[in-house]
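User: Reviewer 2 asked us to show a designed sequence for the structure in our supplementary figure. I'm pasting the structure tokens here. Could you produce the per-position amino acids so we can include them in the response letter?
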């Protein structure tokens, strides 16, 4: 091309590098939830895995006879069991580092191994002192501070407030969206007496699936972005496995309702409740008990195809189309 015409051409764009592409993609930033290192943590995690399904099993006949009153009365017992599990087995939000190395640390999280700036008397902020108390239970850190920071055990008094706060969030935030999702997916609207049952179902699902998540991650936007995108890693405590299992179990539990067996136990929402309970128990056993998939994530991340690969594909398709046209012209001649 003549040098005199080069100024008329638009400037060529620099090649897009892989780093620039990956910068535009969202990436998960959360660590697996650890199990506390206390002797009772491991034991009660096994007990709790069996205790919740056994309780629902013992209440099955009452649920069939009177779903509304049974779900309403059982909600307090199930919430108490879940609160005990959180307080005994899990680190509370702010008591462990839940952000990945190289990624952001979630709001309210801290690490005992992180360097703290030296402060004079009276200059330490209230937030810093509260954070140190939550991490160490009012005691100074030892050489095993990394383990204590990961566990975030602290004292029993330091666990009561996070547990109550998590319970309040669990009973107020997720139930209404879960109820709307159930209605969209086919929960009965008529008779209207079934709508309160759907709301109670949402409360039970919220307590079983979301209470441990609120307890360990608090209200961090980064953590709940990963939750909404199903990006949390499966953990040794069985928290994320039980949450995923609860939703899958509820979906499978709705199948028997469509069968024309005309059984009393097929009415709404008995089979869905049992499916949620069995699903969360199976998910906890697979991840927390057998250790399957710990540290792995459900891969739903966005991916971009290479521009050069797309260009080659388009060029090949264009060549193939041209060859087809040539063959047709030869046949017509």
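Assistant: Here is a per-position design you can include in the supplement:
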């Amino acid at each position: 091309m003549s040098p005199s015409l080069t100024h008329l051409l638009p400037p060529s764009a620099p090649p897009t590098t892989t780093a620039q592409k990956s910068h535009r993609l969202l990436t998960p930033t959360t660590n697996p939830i650890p199990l506390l290192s206390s002797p009772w943590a491991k034991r009660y995690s096994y007990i709790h895995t069996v205790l919740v399904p056994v309780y629902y099993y013992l209440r099955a006949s009452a649920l069939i006879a009177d779903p509304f009153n049974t779900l309403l009365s059982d909600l307090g017992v199930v919430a108490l069991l879940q609160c005990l599990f959180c307080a005994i087995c899990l680190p509370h939000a702010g008591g462990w580092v839940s952000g990945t190395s190289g990624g952001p640390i979630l709001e309210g999280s801290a690490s005992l191994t992180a360097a703290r700036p030296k402060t004079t008397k009276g200059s330490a902020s209230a937030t810093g002192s509260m954070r140190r108390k939550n991490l160490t239970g009012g005691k100074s850190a030892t050489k095993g501070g990394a383990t204590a920071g990961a566990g975030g055990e602290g004292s029993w008094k330091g666990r009561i407030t996070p547990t109550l706060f998590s319970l309040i969030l669990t009973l107020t935030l997720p139930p209404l969206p879960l109820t709307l999702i159930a209605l969209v997916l086919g929960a009965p609207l008529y008779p209207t007496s079934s709508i309160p049952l759907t709301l109670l179902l949402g409360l039970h699902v919220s307590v079983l699936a979301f209470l441990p998540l609120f307890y360990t991650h608090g209200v961090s936007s980064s953590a709940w972005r990963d939750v909404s995108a199903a990006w949390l890693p499966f953990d040794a405590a069985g928290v994320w496995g039980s949450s995923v299992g609860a939703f899958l179990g509820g979906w499978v539990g709705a199948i028997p309702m469509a069968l024309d067996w005309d059984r009393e136990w097929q009415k709404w929402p008995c089979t869905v409740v049992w499916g949620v309970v069995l699903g969360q128990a199976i998910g906890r056993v697979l991840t927390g008990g057998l250790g399957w998939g710990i540290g792995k994530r459900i891969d739903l991340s966005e991916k971009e195809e290479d521009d050069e690969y797309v260009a080659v594909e388009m060029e090949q398709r264009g060549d193939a189309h041209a060859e087809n046209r040539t063959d047709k012209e030869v046949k017509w001649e």
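For the response letter, you might also mention the following. The chain has 14 helices and no strands. Residues 13-24, 100-151 have pLDDT under 50 and may be disordered.
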